[in-house]
Amino acid sequence: MTDFGLVRPPVLAGAALLRDEPLRQDTGRQKEAWATARVVLVDEEGRSPVRWGPPVDGSGADAVPGADAVPGVDDAGANPRLWMPPATEVAGSPPPDALLLGEADGVAYWAVRGGAEQTAAGDEVRWLNLFSVGAELGERDAALLAAGVALLNWHGRAQFCAHDGSPTRLANAGWARVCEAQHHEEYPRTDPAVICLVHDGADRMLLGRHRAWPAGRFSVLAGFVEAGESLEACVAREIGEEVGLDVTDIRYLGSQAWPFPRSLMLGFHAVADPAQPLRLDETEISEALWVTRDEVREALARGDGWATADDSPATATPPIRLPGRMSIARTMIDSWSAAG
Question: Is the pTM of this model over 0.90?
Answer without folding.
Answer: no
